[in-house]
Amino acid sequence: MSELHNGQLYWPETAERDVTFPELNKDIHCNVLIVGGGMAGALCAEELSHTRMSVAVVDKRRVGEGSSSANTGLLQYSNDKMLHEFIEQIGEEKAVTFYKMCLEAVEELQKVAGTLPGKVDFVRRPSLYYASDEADIEKLEKEYEALTEHGFEVEYFDADKIEELYGFRKPAALMTHGDAEVNPFRLIRSLFESAETRGVQIYENTSVDRPQKNEDGKFVVETANGKITADHIIYCTGYEAKSLADRFGGELNRTYAIATNQVDDLESWIYRALIWETKRPYFYMRTTEEGRIIAGGLDEDKMDADVSDEKLHDRGARLVERIKEHFPDLDIHAEYTWSAAFGESEDGLPFIGKDPEQEGIYYCLGFGGNGTVYSKLGAKMLCEMLHGEHNPEEAAIVDPGRD
Asked: Boundaries of each FAD dependent oxidoreductase domain copy (predicted)?
C-alpha cells in the first residue's frame, strides 16, 4: 500500500495542544464499532455520541493522521460534477436531492463546529468557480440555470465583473453562496474530544483483523491486545483500503497541495472566496485565518506515482505560479508542500450505507471532491439507518451497492 501522504503537512503544525488516546489493551463490547479515526470516523462518532448507542473508534495510527491530515479544508456543496451534469446522469430529482443534501451537510458542519472545544477555524465563504477557457462558458451558463431553478443562491459574473472584483480576467464565473472553510486537523481532534465526553471510547495505534461472527450473531474483531464485540461496524477507512475502492468502483489517485507563507495584505481577495476552475484536473485555492494561502491540484491518476523531494519541490513551485497568475503582486513562496491520496468514484458519488452482502456492516467512504461534506451527510444518514429512521430515496443515491 502506498503512503497516504508525503512531504511536509501544514495542518498538524497548527495543533493548539496534543490530543492523545490510548491503545486498546482489553476486551470491550459496544453497539457500534467505527474503524477509522479520520474525518469520517470523527463525524460518525460525534453524531452517534448524541444517541443511546455505545460507540468505540479504532485507528491503526493516531487519529487524524491518515489522509485527513492532508485535507485542504474546502467545504463546498458544489461537486466535481456539476448539478446539470448530475441531472443528465441520474435524473433531476436525485441530482437536486443530492446537491441539497450536500448544502445541508455544510450547514450541519457549522452547527457542530460551534459546539466544539478549541478553535477549528470554521468560516462561511462563497466560492468563485470560473471558466478556465471560452469553451467552458456554456457549461457555467447551464449550471447557473440549474442552480437558480432549484433555489441555490448563485451569481453569474462575466469577464469584466471578475476583473473588477478580483483583478484577474477569466471568461466567466459563478459565485455560489453556502460554502465554508475549516482547519480539518483541529476539527477532527475536537470532534473526538467532544465525542469522548459523551462516552465514546477512542483507541489509537490499534489495528483490527477482519470481523468474525460469534454464536450470538455479533461481530468479534481481534486486535493485538484485546478483542471488540460489536452489533454493527462502520468502516470509515477513507483511502486506506484499496480493496473497498476496487469493490465499489472507486479509484485512488494522487494530488498536490501547498501552504504559503503568511501574506500581509489579502484585501484584493474579495470575500476570501474559495476559488476553483472548470478545467480537469482543476486548480483551487483558499486562504487561512492566519493569512496563508492553501492551493492544490496537479492531480495524477495513480496513487502510487513517484513522489521524490525533487518532484514535490517542482509541484510546489508550479502551484505558487498558479496563485501568482491570479494575484501577481503577492510576495509568496511555498512553506509547506505535500502530496496526498484521494479517491474518486466512477459516477462522482460517495459510498455511504449498508454492505450489499453482509448485514450489520456499513460504510462511510467520502470518495469524490468533497470528502468532508460527504462524511457529514454520511454520519447523519448512518445514524438514522442504525435507528431505522433513514430516507430510502436519499440512501439509494449513495448506496455502495448501487448499479
From this structure: 32-385
CA-CA distance, 208 to 222, in Å (whole number)?
Answer: 6
What the block records as the C-alpha cell of 145 is 440555470
Q: Which CATH class is domain 122-182+252-345?
A: alpha beta
Question: Beta strands of 242-383 (E only): which ranges?
Answer: 250-260, 274-277, 284-287, 293-300, 334-345, 351-354, 361-365
Query: Which cell is 252 given?
Result: 485512488
Most confident of the following: 6-20, 98-112, 246-260: 98-112
Q: Which residues does residue 74 pair with via DSSP β-bridges, in sequence order?
A: 181
With cut-offs at 50, 70 and 90, classify the pLDDT of residue 403. Answer: confident
User: Confidence band (pLDDT; 50, 70, 90) for 25?
Assistant: very high
pLDDT exceeds 60 at position 347: yes
Q: What is the pLDDT of residues 164-218, one digit of tens each?
A: 999 999 999 999 999 999 999 999 999 999 999 999 999 999 999 999 999 999 9
Closest CA to 85 of 174, 145, 129: 145
Where do the domains of the chain lie?
A: 5-71+185-247+348-398, 122-182+252-345
Given a cut of 50, whether residue 234 has pLDDT beyond it is yes
- Residue 222, judged by CB atoms within 10 A of its CB (0-12, 13-18, 19+), counts as middle
d(CA 208, CA 331): 47
Distance in angstroms (rounded) separating the CA atoms of residues 154 and 145: 10
Q: Say yes or no: domain 5-71+185-247+348-398 is CATH 3.50.50.60.
A: yes
CATH fold match for the domains 5-71+185-247+348-398 and 122-182+252-345: no
